Amino acid sequence: MSTHVDVVVRDVARSIQADLENLTAGMTSMFVDVIPEFRHDDAVRKLMIASTSSNLTAIVDMLALNISLDDITVPPAAAEYARRFAQHDLSLEGLLRAYRLGEHMFGQWAMAALRHLDLSTDEALTATSRITLLTNSYIDQVVEGVIDIYEDERRRWDARSDATRAAQVRAVLDTEGLDLASAEKMLSTSLRGWHLAAIIWTGPGSAGHVSAQLRAGAAMLAAAIGKVPLTISADEETCWAWISSVGKPILDVHRLEGELREYPALRIAVGDVSSGLDGFRQTFRDAQRTRSVAATGAVPDRVLVLHSQVALAGLLVGHLADVRAWAERVLGDLMRDDEATVRLRQTVQVFLEARGSFTDAAARLHVHKNTVHYRVRKAEDILGHPLTENRLDTEVALLACVQLGLRCL
User: Fold this and answer.
1) Beta partners for residue 243, in sequence order
2) From CA 328, how far away is CA 409, in angstroms rounded?
3) pTM value?
4) 207 falls in which pLDDT band (50, 70, 90)?
5) Residues 284 and 246 in one domain
6) Per-position DSSP letters for 294-331, written without gaps between them
7) Where are the alpha helices (DSSP H) in 35-120?
């Protein structure tokens, strides 16, 4: 019985093989009609036809010559088509769908061939079962290889594309005398509107794939503004992003902060909105300084830092040693790190922000007005002068302590 089934399977394979050219044309036309990703230009279409033909030939040979599945590999044309699919950023799902549709169509051809043979119902069913099993096993084995080829090429192509895009962006950022038209040509995007830059990075305790977290950060940024950003990988743990639009981008800060809480190791620093080529560069410099402020660890739990929140500290962060020495001269023992002194600094800062109003400061701090009086007088004793003297220096030094994490050495 087994030998007879083998003969029937071989006859079906030879019947299909005799008309394989026309059948291949019908299958590739079906792919184009049903799967949008298969509507290629002529060059890629020829490769798609070659891929389909090579798989069909391999299946027919397997059935006709009883080739073992252990000897089956992805045909070269099919492997190259999978790579090209990845290079064109076409979905893997579309490619896999073609294999399943092709398997179904091949099964229809086999049943049509079986009808022309003088077989009993049991013989036809047994042959159909064998052909289906072998064809399905071939497809499973080849698809597994195709997935590996596609994903490897996607990673390689993405890395190459990222490197090229990164080089172009860096050239636009750093090249002096670059005119607007040349910059737009390099980036293939308009730079005439408004821009908002962000730096996305992962900190200590990153879990899982860092690249996936960075992509999630970019997606959250896009959702919080309603625009897809231009992104490049600056390094393995950092992504740069720009949102550009004709109107000023508006960031939904509350939404972005909330979504970032789901990724404890992910951080985003955002520059100020600015316009034109100079604005494209300026907002990025803002974001860089903002990240530098965040990197001091003064507020380790802050997942989203805006340049508008730390602009002055951003100008100082590149000179931490000098700023610390200056702040110590201004504040003296008010820079000590004990809990009582930290509370005094906080009170003085709020008091100065309240323009010297004890009542307003007390309301902001949720304490009694007399408590503010006591703390201010205590701070003035430490400083050796009233807060009305040297007020600007005192405010800047206190801000540096809070935003840059400065303390007495």
Assistant:
1) 196
2) 9
3) 0.60
4) low
5) yes
6) HHTTSSTT--EEEHHHHHHHHHHGGGHHHHHHHHHHHH
7) 42-65, 76-87, 92-115
**Segments forming the whole domain that contains residue 381:** 317-404
State the virtual CA torsion across 217, 220, 222, 224 in degrees, nearest 10: -140
Task: Tell me the three state secondary structure of residue 234.
Answer: strand
Q: What is the pLDDT of residues 30-60, one digit of tens each?
A: 999 999 888 877 778 889 999 999 999 999 9
Q: Are both 214 and 263 inside the same structural domain? A: yes
pLDDT for the residue numbered 205:
57
CATH for 357: 1.10.10.2840
Q: Which of 127, 118, 122 is nearest to 3 (CA)?
A: 127
pLDDT, residue 250, reads 93
Structure-block tokens of residue 99: 């294999």
The residue with tokens 């005439």 is 192
Band of pLDDT at residue 304, cut at 50, 70 and 90: very high
For residue 226, what is the domain's CATH number?
3.30.70
**CA atoms of 329 and 380, how far apart (whole Å):** 15
Tell me how far apart the alpha carbons of residues 307 and 291 are, in angstroms, rounded to a whole number: 9
- Number of neighbours of residue 175 by Cβ within 10 angstroms: 12
Are 203 and 176 within 8 A, CB to CB?
no
pLDDT at 388: 85
